[in-house]
Amino acid sequence: MGGRLWTAEQVEILREYYPDNYAKVVAEMLNMPVTRVYHKVNNMGIRKSKAWRKRELDLQGKRLRVVGKKARFQKGHIPLNTGKKWQEWQSPEGRKNSLATAFKKGNLSHNAKYDGCVTIRTAAKCHKQYKYIRLAKSKWIELHLAMWIFLNGPLPAGKILRCKTEDTLNCDPSNWFLTDRSTHLAKNSGRADMSDKYIALVLSRRDPEVREALMQMPEILDLKRTELTLKQTINELA
Questions:
Q1: pLDDT, mean of each 10-residue run, the chain (238 residues)
Q2: What's the chain's Rg over C-alpha atoms?
Q3: How far apart are alpha carbons 210 and 141 in whole angstroms?
Q4: Which residues sit opposite 160 in a β-bridge?
Q5: What are the residue ranges of helices labelled H in the chain?
Q6: What DSSP assignment string belongs to 140-180?
Q7: Nearest partner of 203 among 228, 182, 229, judged by Cα
Q8: What 3-state DSSP class applies to 198?
Q9: Cβ atoms within 10 A of the Cβ of 197, count?
């Protein structure tokens, strides 16, 4: 069956068997190189099924639990150098070699920063970028916070700074305002303005696939938004 062009029969076999079988197995069924199978499924957008991916992850997990088991430290094993000074377990030659390449006391790496240096970091959760300034060794602070404190003094208890715009790299104090953590959280989640993203999150119970589907259903989102707004109004008037 291995011709230069794909026949309708070959494509049908590919659609039926590739999602739940290894590419090598499908290639043998079609009597063609496995590279042709990979190339075709990539072009057609055919992916492995959820059941296959789960089964494969389970198999890999079992394999990893077995591979190298004999060479691993067993429970209760005590390393050779536990509680000992290095002179007690390392040979004189080994100590000499280690000292030859060890950093000397007080050594700074070639890329060590200096006081007043400003760098840009990306927040892990929101992926937004912020500027940080070094005040002293191992002491960094957000630049917008440092500038706010310089002009206005320390932040009041329970308050944090929130950016007025989307430009979090603009550290001018006029671009930031004081707010409390609960309000900050509400705005980040979309709860404050009942955004579609927040409504979908409430309805989906954090299921990403359901949430994605709900984002394509504006009528349902509007109904839930109206319900939540009504409840909020009743609570405020109670």
A1: 76 93 93 93 93 92 83 86 88 90 84 92 87 94 94 91 92 92 69 78 82 88 84 69
A2: 30
A3: 39
A4: 179
A5: 8-17, 23-30, 34-44, 50-66, 86-89, 92-101, 143-152, 181-189, 196-204, 208-214, 218-237
A6: EEEHHHHHHHHHH-SPPTTEEEEESSS-TT---GGGEEEEE
A7: 228
A8: helix
A9: 14
